[in-house]
Design goal:
This protein has about 260 residues and is of the alpha/beta class. It has 2 domains: about 130 residues, D-Maltodextrin-Binding Protein, domain 2 (3-Layer(aba) Sandwich), CATH 3.40.190; about 100 residues, D-Maltodextrin-Binding Protein, domain 2. About 40% of the residues lie in helices and about 25% in strands. Strands 1, 5, 6, 7, 8, 9, 10, 11, 12 and 13 form a 10-stranded mixed β-sheet that branches. The longest helix has 17 residues. The radius of gyration is 21 Å and the shape is globular. The structure holds arginine. Arginine (ARG) binds next to strand 2 and strand 6.
Amino acid sequence: MKKLVSILIAVMILATVVTGCGKKGKTIADIQKAGKLVIATSPDFPPFEELQNDGSVVGIEVEILEMVCQELGVEMELAQVDFESVLPGVQSGKYDVGMSGISVTEKRKKNTLFTDPYCLAAQAIVVTADSPIKSKADLEGKKISVQTGTTAEQFCMDNGYTVDAFAANSDAELALTTGKVDAWVIDDLTAAEMVTAYNAENGEQLIILDEAMTTEPYAFAFMKGSDELVAKINEIVNGLVEDGTVAALFEKYNAPYTAPTK
Ligand code: ARG
């Protein structure tokens, strides 16, 4: 009998190792048992998630996931991390969800399960008002600041630009305003908010070029294997897109809304 038990235990351990250390994604039951949804976020990304002086995080994505938590009957717990740590933390199961204006890409899909996108965004080029750079073509051979781990960084590297990457968005902005780089590439709606805030304090010093670099859908990120949980969250979020709640949230934050393509 003892022998049988040890064999059984050995088989179970082997099975766990073979199936990837027992990491099988998150289920609705896991979340409800924990009573909370643990969300990794880099809150330097207005109007999606922005850290306030009182330590709270506000924004469009915060409000969407608040509604999701309400629907699931769980609390929302935010873990603030640098953007480059969001996806690895979700992939390892440390966090349940990644909420960071995350663009869905084929490369990321290999290690991450995404919800359906809820909006479309683009990469914008920001330069100083006196810059000779007037279009994408003028960027050739120039130095560009980006946030580490973003699609902006990937895009600029793929296109052969000299890239200066920063963990925090504010430092990527600072590199431009202090003349360390020639341009800053960042998602369009965040660019609009940060440039408006900067110019309000410093005069009309930064401009966003009309020409966007890419179009990218935003979604929330989950650990692979969380299909049942993600199906439920898709149902909730798609409902909020279809009934106009998401568009109204963009309006609340003064941001133009572009619906995802079906
Ligand atoms: N959308 C871009 C990406 O997925 C940038 C996201 C940056 N997000 C942030 N919270 N700082 O790479």
